[in-house]
Design brief:
single chain, 425 residues, alpha/beta, Rossmann fold, Dimethylsulfoxide Reductase, domain 2, 8-stranded mixed sheet, 5-stranded parallel sheet, globular, binds iron/sulfur cluster
Length: 425
């Protein structure tokens, strides 16, 4: 939201939204003078780097690695997609909701596959939910208001979402934790001790999380808990603490969702939360989302298709995690439109080799390894800094991102619209 102090040369934004991670902190204060960001407040180091993104920018479009203008690059992108019988549209976690909508239109029009980078890390969680494991969820504002027991499990917000602790979980005052951190019990379960204040830290070896969760469930049910003999006293204390709270939250991160033994870990923690709820407590499980608008892409696909990611419009079997997602579909697609993602850096080497066999169209503000193998590379404005748009916070709350400064680059939405129009001609 833009506030008044606006003359010819200076503007102040008193409640801007940070477009780096899915916390989408909406209390950022920005002072702009002569189209330069001069002052930033209420923003962590990642947010500062995003707002001041001068380095690593892709400066101009390229076609087959050679400089081109936007018109020629878009024409080539349209040709590639017109010639493809089943393209993949992938990424979208760093795009505005409006851009995601256009990308979905392209996927439907071309009867291709649309997948979100979420599918790599959160695949197994959705598979467990599809298998009808219970899921207890809440908005972050409710968690801040009511939770007195906070568990970070396989998640270290200090290194991934630095202001999460201050805005939603540990430090803010809440209705049942009026003194903030001193009225809350903080528990961390991870392979490495995270650097935030906590009463308990349970160090696990990779893949041991399921054993810890199962032991806590057994203790809560009053059953014999055999597997964790060495830590049974500590886990008994933690089970008592979990039981003593009327409201608690377990934030789960990639250490659980995508680490060793992830399938068993997720099911065991879902079962633990279910057990707590069946004892009359209210506990929620909250997956920590990474990129700033991964939730927007997931919600869009859920609304329009009923599936969270990996939707294949070319067949009746539209959603099968592992088959219709990027990890399973690369040998079937014959082109890829990649928006705000770097699959060359994030996929295993065998999948990257598959990408080398097909023409890639890449839209991104920044240079990346994927850009270096793209047939068409299109630089875009940074949403939330150089263009406006809607993004959804990690709990699904929609927020408006402002255009803070002008830039020479078009938005990803504008470029995707041009590609979509070209396809229809
Ligand atoms: S926690 Fe995330 S959204 Fe908040 S300021 Fe840091 S990077 Fe930005």
């Amino acid at each position: 939201m833009r506030d008044a102090t606006e003359g010819n040369t200076e503007r102040i934004y008193n409640a801007a939204v940070c477009p780096f991670c899915a916390c989408l902190c909406d209390d950022v204060v920005i002072r702009v003078r002569n189209n330069e960001i001069e002052e930033l407040r209420n923003v962590c180091r990642f947010g500062v780097a995003k707002f001041r993104s001068h380095q690593g920018r892709l400066k101009r479009p390229t076609v087959d690695g050679k400089p081109a203008n936007y018109e020629d690059a878009i024409a080539r992108a349209v040709d590639i997609l017109k010639g493809a019988s089943k393209p993949l549209i992938y990424g979208l976690s760093n795009s505005s909701y409006e851009a995601q909508q256009v990308a979905l239109r392209i996927a439907k029009y071309k009867r291709g596959v649309i997948d979100v980078s979420e599918s790599i890390c959160h695949n197994l969680l959705y598979a467990a939910l599809k298998a009808h494991y219970p899921f207890y969820y809440a908005l972050l504002d409710e968690i801040r208001d009511k939770a007195t027991v906070i568990v970070y499990w396989g998640s270290n917000p200090v290194v991934s979402h630095p202001r999460h602790l201050a805005r939603y979980s540990v430090y803010p005052a809440g209705r049942y934790a009026m003194k903030g951190v001193t009225d809350r019990t903080i528990i961390a379960i991870d392979v490495i001790e995270p650097g935030f204040k906590k009463q308990w830290f349970v160090q696990v070896k990779p893949g041991e999380d399921a054993m810890i969760a199962n032991t806590l469930t057994q203790l809560l049910k009053g059953e014999p808990a055999g597997e964790c003999n060495q830590r049974i006293t500590e886990l008994r204390d933690i089970a008592d603490k979990l039981r003593s709270a009327m409201y608690g939250v377990i934030f789960i991160g990639l250490g659980v969702l995508a680490g060793a033994n992830a399938d068993e870990n997720i099911k065991a923690i879902l079962t633990l939360v279910d057990t707590l709820n069946k004892t009359g407590r209210r506990y929620v499980i909250f997956p920590m989302k990474g990129h700033y608008n991964v939730m927007g892409a997931v919600l869009l696909l859920m609304r329009e298709t009923g599936y969270p990611f990996g939707v294949d419009f070319s067949s009746d079997k539209r959603f099968e995690p592992g088959k219709t997602t990027v990890m399973g579909v690369l040998k079937e697609v014959d082109a890829a439109l990649i928006v705000g993602a770097d699959p060359v850096a994030s996929l295993p080497a065998a999948k990257v080799r598959d990408l080398l066999d097909i023409p890639l169209i890449v839209l991104d503000p920044f240079e990346s390894p994927t850009m270096s193998i793209a047939s068409v590379a299109l630089p875009v404005a940074i949403t939330g800094v150089e263009s406006e748009g809607i993004a959804y916070r990690m709990d699904g709350l929609p927020l408006k991102l402002d255009k803070i400064i002008n830039s020479e680059y078009p938005s990803d939405k504008a470029l995707l619209e041009q590609i979509y129009e070209g396809l229809q001609q």
